[in-house]
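Researcher: Here's my situation. A collaborator sent me these components and asked whether they could plausibly form a single complex. I don't have experimental data yet, so a predicted model of the whole assembly would be a useful starting point for our discussion.
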Amino acid sequence: MTTQAGAAVAHAAEQADTAPKTVKGSTKWGDVALRVVAGLVLLYLFLPIFVIVLFSFNNPKGKFNYSWQGFTLKNWLNPFKYPALTDAMKLSINVAAVSTAIALVLGTLVAIALVRQRFRGSQAVDTFLVLPLTAPEVVMGASLLVLFLDLGWATGYTTILLAHIAFEISFIAMTVRARVRGFDWTLEDASMDLGASPTRTFFKVTLPLIVPGIVAAAMLSFALSLDDFIITYFVSGSSVTYPLYVNASVKASVPPQINVLATAILLISLVLLGVGTLYRRKRFEA
Amino acid sequence: MAGVATSSRQRSKIAPYLMILPALVYLGIFFVWPIISLTVTSLSTSGGSVFLPTMEFSWKFANYADAFSRYQDQILRSFLYAITATVVCLLLAYPLAYVIAFKAGRFKNLILGLVILPFFVTFLIRTIAWKTILADDGWVVSALDSVGLLPSDGRLLSTSWAVIGGLIYNWIIFMILPLYVSLEKIDPRLIEATKDLYSSNTRSFRKVILPLSMPGVLAGSLLVFIPAAGDFINAEYLGSTQTTMIGNVIQQQFLVVKDYPAAAALSMVLMLIILAGVLVYTRALGTEDLV
């Protein structure tokens, strides 16, 4: 996933909550053709996914897991056979969690400031926040590398963190802002008119209002960080994140465990997606 | 966080500035400053060796002329590939987004979830999967071969089309989602009204649906075009030395050759051309709000 796109995902997920509507009236055959094309595109999106899942059961002869050699369960029985792969996975999760936590504070503050009141320069801040989302990743990675070289900093864990926070802030600010826009902030006044202290108002009124937006932003930021290759590639030094491990393996040897872990992540996402849908349905019924 | 909880009457004028300050300072240091550093580097003279590269600022605009003349093939290819990928993404994504928005009924959330799901697998692993699918001994090559649709050299992998195919696949989601969002916003009664006024389906699509979905077309096109033009993974995994893009050269120059000024000049060229493209495109479509 690229940095530019996170906001679109959040926006679409939000829209999906609205009631279903169906437009009738197109001719029958046109309708069928349209559905068939849509189905084919959906199938196309899943084509590589089928290959990834299938090849997690492959028993490759050489170093590369590119052609089908025979069915085996041994990759699934030893998912953590390659310590370097596991370490890379751990590093990626670490970077994603820490960078998201920091970017979340910075990004949420900006988002709240922007939606709660107009202030001099808020328009400019708005425009400025979009800029990092329009810079190609290769330029962002390269420019950060130049900065770290100028400063004489060794690239590694810290520089990866700093880079990830940089691309996450805008995206978190945009997502949170989209979710909390249109909230009635006078509720805070009401709370204090009724005698609540500012702290109590914050925890009882403000926070519950903004939490769904923050959660959505955090999840997408985490996913973007976990998947980032291009920017990380420039600023990683000798540290190896999960995507960097995958890239290095393409040049040396591709163990099927890569497919096993990818399939496992996919299954977990699928379960979360199902749980989320059920939870939402239950909430609507209640 | 005390500032958040103050009432509007008490809200001070400086509270919003205090809230935006940390992020702005951060982006100043880790976004604006790097871009300035990059600009300075692009105008410097390189010296030293691969192991200890040095550079000196010297208003060397020749770096830009060199970047254009030495890498014009890659520059041209990047934009050709990115434009092709954007157009194909639009053609593939529109029917799907349309069906999700208007025809999916109660399956809408499910289909939307399914559309997003493949993108939970790391981008690199999906690209490796395409390597398997397009391989010389794969079923796609043999299927195309049997119907005589295969290009003359009998390969799919390592061709321009494989690279463009990879670009399409990796960014099509960012066309589907904004299109869906803008189609979803259209009031179905508007479409019914066109029917009541005896408009044909084609006509109501052309006169009502398409114009109203333009913000989605615009946003989707930019979200596909920008990353595609700067990508180097698809060209590296699915292409050959004949299909390298600007991203490949920038990456090579920065991390292998370590000719920082040349690489920086090329990065600036990429950014400026993208910026110009975006301006022309938004002007041509006549809309400025991005979803």
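Model: Some features of this prediction you could bring to your collaborator: Residues 48 and 54 of chain A are 10 Å apart (CA to CA). Chain A touches chain B through 109 residues (CB under 8 Å).
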